[in-house]
Amino acid sequence: MPNGSPLSRSPFHGAATGSYSAPDARRQRRYPGQIARRSRQELSEKPRHRSRVPTGRLERIARIGWMAGEFALGGAAEGARRFMGRRDSRAGSVFLTGANARRLARRLSRMRGAAMKVGQLLSLEGDDMLPPEFSEALSILRSAADMMPASQVRRALAREYGKGWQSRFRHFDLEPIAAASIGQVHAAVAADGRELALKLQYPGVARSINSDVDNLAAMLRVTHILPVDIDVSGIIAEAKRQLRREADYLAEAAHLDRYRKLVADDPRVLVPRVHADLTTARVLAMDFIRGRPIEDVRGPEHPQELRDSIGQCLQRLMFRELFEFGFMQTDPNFSNYLLVPETGQVALLDFGAAQEIPRELADLYARLFRSALDGDRSELRNVVTELGFVDAQERAHRVEGLLDLILLVCEPLRHKGEYDFGSSDLPSRAREAGFELAFRRGFLRPPPPQTMFLHRKLGGTFFLCARIRARANARALIEPFLDAR
Question: Considering 331, 363, 391, 404, which one is annotated as catalytic?
Answer without folding.
Answer: 331
